[in-house]
Amino acid sequence: MYYKKVNKASKKEMVDFLENHFRYNTMNSWNCSTSYANCVKVWCLDLPKELEDKFWELQNIKYDEFYMYDIPDMISDFRHKYGYDVGFNGRSSGYLVMYEMQFTGNGKYGIYPGRSIDMNEDFNDKEEWSLYRLKERVELVQAFDKLCDDIRNALIEYLKTHEFIDEEYTEVKTRKIAK
Predict the structure, then answer these.
(1) For the range 49-56, what are the long-range contacts, defined as Cβ-Cβ under 8 Å and sequence gap of 24 or more?
(2) CA nearest 134: which of 4, 13, 5?
(3) 3-state SS class at 109
(4) N or C: which end of the chain has fewer CB within 10 A?
């Protein structure tokens, strides 16, 4: 769904892919920094109607259970393999955004949410962007897109394999009476 094949022998195709990839804010719109992103709002996921309905049922019951299903491990694997982080952004966390990592000391890295990645970049600058470097960047963004596909597929698998049962909880009140 998100992943797109790119002819890495064609500079034009690689530049077009990077320049036209969807982007979203890395913090808020006021900081004017964007990065590679994908919309993961339910209406963008192209789910069959019965799974979309089930998703909304999930939203009302236990959203955190799905989030803990596989997503943290997928993002952690991406982070370790590529050195970039991925996080949910937007008022309703409806966008997955790729973030640059920064060294925070003591051998640890953290997310650098305010920094843009390739915003206003001139990929046609031959001194800055060799064919090799362009190919590396395309492969990174394709890996990000594949991660977004994998997260979507995990959601679909979760919806197919889990049932949601409405549970009604009642509070029992007891009163002690002295005799």
Answers:
(1) 51/156, 51/159, 51/160, 54/159, 54/164, 55/155, 55/159
(2) 13
(3) strand
(4) C
